[in-house]
Each structure stands twice: as C-alpha cells, then as structure tokens.
Specification:
about 375 residues; alpha/beta; Aspartate Aminotransferase, domain 2; seven-stranded mixed β-sheet; 12 strands; globular; binds pyridoxal-5'-phosphate
Length: about 375
C-alpha cells in the first residue's frame, strides 16, 4: 500500500505545526505568547453572527448552487465595486469554503505540467505547494529584506520565459507586510499584457493597510479579463472559522472554477454564505476599530524588535505581520524559532515562507499589546 507520488509534492503551512508544539508545551505548564498564527484575535461582530443564526433558524441549511447563493454573489459584486471601483457581474463571483481553495482551483484550472508560475518568495506557502502539486514549475519573485521587500520589475521581467503562464501577487503581503502601489501594479500589468499571462491577485489583506489605499491590478486597462481576484471574510471580519472566501473570475475560467467547487465542496455552507450580506450591509466600525488596534500594535512590535541588538525589523505597510531579519544574531532562523518557543514565544521560521525567507522570522501581531510587550521582553532575554 502506497500513497500517490503527487503527495510528495504537497507542502504545508508551518503555523499549524508550531501551534501544535506550542500547545504541547502549554500542557506541560510553559506560558507561551502566540505570535505564530495568522488570525485576528477578535470576535466576529455580533450583527454578523446574528445574520447566520437567523439564517439557520429560517431553515437556510441546505445545498446552494455551487458558485454560491445569487443574492450573496450580488452583494459581493457590489462590495468589489465599493472597495476596488470595479464593475463586476454577480455571475463572475464564486464563493468558496475559505479563500484557500481559490489558490488550489486556480492552479488546477490553469497550470499544466511544466508551466511556469511566478510567485512571491517569501510568500504564503500554499502558492508554492500548489504549483508543485499540479506539476507546475515555481519561479520565485524574490522579496529582499534589504530592499524593504519591494519588487524588482527588471528581475521579474528576466524571470519570464515562453513557459510562464501565471503570475501570483499578494498585496498586502503575508509574511512581509509589503504593499504593491499603483506604479508597481501598472508596471506589472504591462508585463502581464506583453507576455500574455494570467494573474492571481491575492487581496485577502486589502483592508489592513497602514498607509495609502488598496489598488487592485484588475483596475488597469485590459486586466480584468485576465485577473482572478482572491478575497474573503477570514481576516477583514475576524471570521477564520466560518470558512468563507470569494473570487472574481473572468468568463474564460468561470465554468471550470465552478465545476471545481461542485467536485470538491459542492458549495460553501449556506448560512455561512448568508452572513456575508450581514457583514457588508452592517456597520463597519468594528473592522475599522480592529485595524486601528493593529496599527498601534504594529508600532509597538516594530519599535520593540528594533531595540533588540541583532534584529532589524522593517515597518510593514499592511497585513498584521512583521518579518524581521535576525541574521545579525548569528543564528539560523529555524534555530531561532526552535529555541525561542520553550522560552515562551511562538513565531515562524522565515524559510517556511520560501527559500528567500531564510534569515528572517515572522511574528503575527494578532495578540494584545500586553502580550506583545511580554514577548519582546522574552526575546530580549533570549538574545542576551
Ligand atoms: C495571503 C493569504 N491568502 C489566503 C489565505 C487564506 O485565507 P482563508 O483562511 O480564508 O482560507 C491566507 C490565510 O492565512 C493568507 O495569508
């Protein structure tokens, strides 16, 4: 008995592994500050929960069309217009169980064995995992701490070959916190059009911006028809457990995308889908409050880490992670992470976000200011 060979190409997300190790230490009495996991430490706002509870009580507990409930897709289309200024038809919206399947579906629907896919490295580990899984060739877009994780358009241009099919971008970026601004996106869109590429634009952190406004690459001329926009409820509304993502999918890929939903999940949970209407129609102040709190935590963690010898922490412009270089401590990032955990701080090895992440570690600041201060003290004691 053997598993399929393709399983050896499937990667993972180390956040879940570190969380399991941290929990074991906690069971043995070690106090841990959790800075490993990427989810807002806030409750889903009351009015959103109420929408779902009412939906269950009203009997909304059945299968829905695979792409999602039409009224919900219509409200998402309006949200896309409100947040990106794009005119989108509800027919081009596909609701998924969390935003992650959008990455999987894109790779399955578009990438043939041998096709090359450009993706950010360091980046969300699922991109590289999925490219490998479907037999594509991952071609990293290097994000360098020394350049504040900014993209180098010339380098990207040089990485394009006649086999390049897809470009994955993620702004604001997990783990780097860097943002692609208008000029970067304009330059990227020219490359995409010149080379006949398709884009997966992961915009799941679009509301978590500490300067400037979110711009989608799909807003540039002729980009809409070749861009899949990924967004979802997990981060913006503290709804990670509700498993709700949504994609804007161009006509050409739409049928395949919906069919992947049919084959895989049938549909996202019906009452969960309906909560989207409650979220988008309801007051926005809780999301704004949460983002303001993240801004304060960001200042605290960036200044705290930069006050420790050997750590160099760039100021993130978005998302809720810092990705400092720990190279000057003389430690490898995996050793740093492993040794810091039993001293009471859980964080992630930069290399788990790709080869170019070595020398950095990721701290999520989805934790209270008090706990962030506790963590900084522990890191300072650890470095000595
Ligand atoms: C960059 C990025 N894209 C997508 C996702 C997936 O989000 P979801 O929890 O909705 O599947 C995450 C979650 O951590 C993420 O960081």
């Amino acid at each position: 008995m053997e598993v399929a060979t393709r399983m050896s190409r499937l990667g993972t997300e180390s956040a879940f592994e570190v969380l399991a190790k941290a929990k074991e230490l906690e069971r043995n009495g070690v106090d841990i500050v959790h800075l490993e996991i990427g989810e807002p430490d806030f409750d889903t706002p009351r009015h959103i929960r109420d929408t779902a509870i009412n939906a269950i009580n009203d009997g909304e507990t059945h299968y829905t069309p695979s792409a999602g409930i039409f009224e919900v897709r219509s409200r998402i289309a309006k949200y896309i217009s409100e947040t990106r200024g794009l005119d989108v038809s509800p027919d081009n919206i596909v609701i998924t169980s969390g935003a992650k399947p959008i990455i999987f579906h894109t790779m399955l629907a578009l990438v043939n064995p041998g096709d090359e896919v450009l993706y950010p490295n360091p980046g969300f580990p699922i991109y590289e995992s999925m490219i490998n899984f479907v037999g594509g060739k991952p071609v990293p877009i290097k994000l360098d701490v020394k350049k504040d994780f900014k993209i180098d358009i010339k380098e990207i241009q040089n990485s394009i070959s006649d086999k390049t099919k897809l470009l994955v971008i993620n702004s604001p970026n997990n783990p780097c916190g860097s943002v692609l601004y208008k000029e970067d996106l304009e330059n990227l869109s020219k490359l995409v059009l010149d080379n006949d590429l398709i884009v997966l634009s992961d915009e799941v952190y679009n509301r978590f911006l500490y300067q400037g406004e979110h711009v989608s690459i799909a807003t540039f001329p002729n980009m809409m028809e070749r861009t899949i926009i990924l967004d979802g409820m997990s981060k913006t509304y503290a709804m990670t457990g509700w498993r709700l993502g949504f994609a804007v999918v161009p006509d050409l890929f739409l049928e395949g995308f919906v069919r992947l939903n049919t084959n895989n999940i049938s549909c996202a949970a019906s009452f969960s889908q309906l909560s989207i209407i409650g979220a988008f129609d309801g007051p926005d102040q809780e999301t704004n409050k949460m983002i303001e709190e993240f801004r304060q935590r960001k200042e605290l963690i960036v200044s705290g880490l930069n006050s420790i010898k050997g750590i160099n922490c760039p100021d993130p412009q978005g998302a809720f992670y810092v990705f400092p270089s720990i190279r000057d401590t003389g430690m490898k990032s995996s050793d740093f992470v492993d040794q810091l955990l039993p001293r009471g701080v859980a964080c992630l090895d930069g290399e788990s976000f790709g080869f170019f992440g070595e020398g950095c570690v990721r701290f999520s600041f989805a934790n209270t200011k008090q706990n962030i201060e506790k963590a900084i003290k522990r890191i300072r004691d650890f470095i000595g």
